[in-house]
Write a structure and sequence with these properties.
The chain has about 475 residues and is α/β, with parallel strands linked by helices. Helices cover about 35% and strands about 25% of the residues. It contains twelve helices and 16 strands. It has an eight-stranded mixed sheet, with helices on both faces. Helix 1 packs antiparallel against helix 12 and helix 8 crosses helix 12. The longest helix is centred in the N-terminal third of the chain and has 37 residues. The radius of gyration is 25 Å and the shape is elongated. The N terminus is likely disordered.
Amino acid sequence: MKRFFLLATLFVSGFSVSAQATKDSTQLRDFYDLALLSGNSYEWLDALSNEVGPRLSGSKGAEKAVEWAKAELDKLGLDKVWLQPVMVPKWERGAPEKAHIEGFDGKIEVPVCALGGSVATPDIGITAGVVEVQGLEDLANYGEAKLKGKIVFYNRPMQADLIQTFSAYGGCVDQRYSGAQEAAKYGAVGVIVRSMNLRMDDYPHTGAMSYGDLPNDKRLPAAAISTNGAALLSKMLKKNNNTQFYLKMNSKNFEDVPSFNVIGELTGSEKPNEYMVIGGHLDSWDLGDGSHDDGAGVVQSMEVLRLMKAANYTPKHSIRVVLFMNEENGLRGGNEYAAVANKKGENHVFALESDSGGFTPRGFSFDADAANFAQVESWIPLFKPYLIHYFELGGSGADIGPLKKDGIVLAGLRPDSQRYFDYHHASNDTFDAVNKRELELGAATMTSLVYLFDTYGVIPVKQ
């Protein structure tokens, strides 16, 4: 008799597991079908990119983006939609930059753009000799005797043999961020930095830079030069180390101005006080329209809630879409959201960010403990039909990073990144560079992960 009951229990248990797996598989299929057959992410991106346009923090474009995002979230019929105030930096590029190399054959114009936060050159520009270096650590090899009065040319490229292109980016972005601050210590008069781009082209890539605690009168103008321009300048310097470079920029910094994070919520049916966040950053750089960085993440995050409603799925936890302001040059939105959540005592258990472009999704990276990552790995068979295969520990996203604490799982969508840095922070980051199907697949993949965490929950940390 005892054996009969054991077999019956195992049968029921096995049936239950099988039934739940079937339910999960069916639910994921529904999300993918809805995203691919009647998705809204591409239409949203079209409007954000082509009607709103560039959205640099503190700009009129950023204000317009906030208005657009709130209006679109209001249309979804969520339980709550609101604006969260945050103060952000304001910087303007001004008139287009000008640069040329003065060599044996006369003046050769090269594409440059001011780095975000840079001061301007004098009105007439600057002309100076150039010293090429291979990174911050290389400055000491030249010293003040060779760098004073010169333009420092940081020409360390992204490491092409790294398959993970974000690792290649991380390996050289310090010269963009801190290059002017460090060169100023040696008496340099300006800085130009090879664009963070694996492709050889004529698009200079902007991005954030910092002067640290340098006083205003010690700050140097800093610009990015295209990869083709960098190659040409390096070649000319090898022929003639007295080659001169001319740079004119008109950028300007202002006092901080008010802006907003845009937040929408579906309130949980069982655990309304446990929050799960999906987000991207609403701001962009000013050269293109920010379709990959991070318009794609914005509309994919919005689409997660729309797909749940379209599938008549009622979440157990409260699920928020947070469209963060000022990721690009300050991270003010992410920090403010986390600070307010902490002040209110809100219990965030899971957060997912999309900020790696709108390319074909490959999977996710996680900042999680062993137990929760093991749970994620148990879901891999559910993603296999959609060619989602990358599930690795190692980071999540900049805007959700401030939420990190014991007991929360952070995740980042990981699309194929091989072409991402062709567009990142450049004028060709425009709507036409995003593929509709790839964008929609990413939204469905994000929705599927949120559904699974909502269904099974986050495994509590053992005390």
